[in-house]
């Protein structure tokens, strides 16, 4: 029996966590939610999620530092950065550190669902699909 993909959502806003949980549990994913970077890293160590959806601006450890630590733990874990404060400099840093994509709030639900599906594809399939569709995650900044 194949294990359901595990998605960890990290955001310090409770409503964001609830929305992601409702959207993603319907999609046959195991969804974990946490509200800070320290707990996120503990969950990454323990659960080894397939994907992390990570807010950039949080109290304590920011999303860039959490991304850096996730990639040290397991570079194969895909990370999508979400933020309400989009800046090209931060996007470049996130992509250099290995983020799958960087998107700004408000988030289009259909877009995030498609992005998650793409991020969870095997690496070769995901890259091919992103090249064909011209997704942001492969552009050079």
Question: Major sheet: size, sense and barrel closure?
Answer: 5 strands, parallel
Helix content: 40-55%
SSE order, as H and E?
A: EHEHEHEHEHH
Instruction: Choose one word for the global shape.
Output: globular
Structural class: alpha/beta
Strand order of the largest sheet: 2-1-3-4-5
The proportion of strand residues reads 15-25%
**How would you describe the oligomerization state of the chains in this entry?**
single chain
**CATH fold category name:** Rossmann fold
Poorly predicted runs are 124-141
Mean of residue pLDDT values:
85
CATH architecture: 3-Layer(aba) Sandwich
Rg (C-alpha, Å): 14 Å
What count of domains describes the coordinates?
1
Number of strands: 5
The tally of helices reads 6
- Can you identify the CATH class? Alpha Beta
The separation of the N and C termini measures 41 Å
CATH H-level homologous superfamily name? Response regulator
Give the SSE layout.
Layout lengths: L5 E5 L3 H12 L4 E5 L2 H11 L3 E5 L7 H11 L4 E6 L4 H9 L4 E4 L4 H11 L3 H11 L8
Helix pairs in contact: 2-3
Please explain how this structure is put together:
Mean pLDDT is 85; it is low at 124-141. The protein is of the alpha/beta class and 141 residues long. The protein has 6 helices and 5 strands.
Main features:
Rossmann fold; disordered C terminus; 141 residues; 18% strand; alpha/beta; five-stranded parallel sheet; globular
């Amino acid at each position: 029996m194949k294990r359901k993909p595990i998605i960890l959502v990290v955001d310090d806003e409770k409503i964001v966590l609830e929305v992601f949980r409702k959207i993603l549990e319907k999609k046959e994913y195991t969804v974990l939610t946490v509200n800070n970077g320290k707990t996120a890293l503990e969950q990454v160590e323990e659960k080894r999620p397939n994907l992390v959806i990570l807010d950039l601006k949080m109290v304590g450890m920011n999303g860039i530092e959490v991304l850096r630590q996730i990639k040290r733990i397991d570079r194969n874990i895909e990370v999508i950065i979400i933020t309400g404060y989009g800046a090209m400099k931060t996007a470049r840093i996130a992509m250099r550190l290995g983020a799958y994509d960087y998107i700004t709030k408000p988030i289009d639900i259909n877009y995030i669902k498609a992005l998650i599906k793409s991020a969870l594809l095997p690496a070769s399939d995901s890259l091919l699909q992103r090249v064909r569709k011209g997704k942001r995650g492969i552009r050079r900044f």
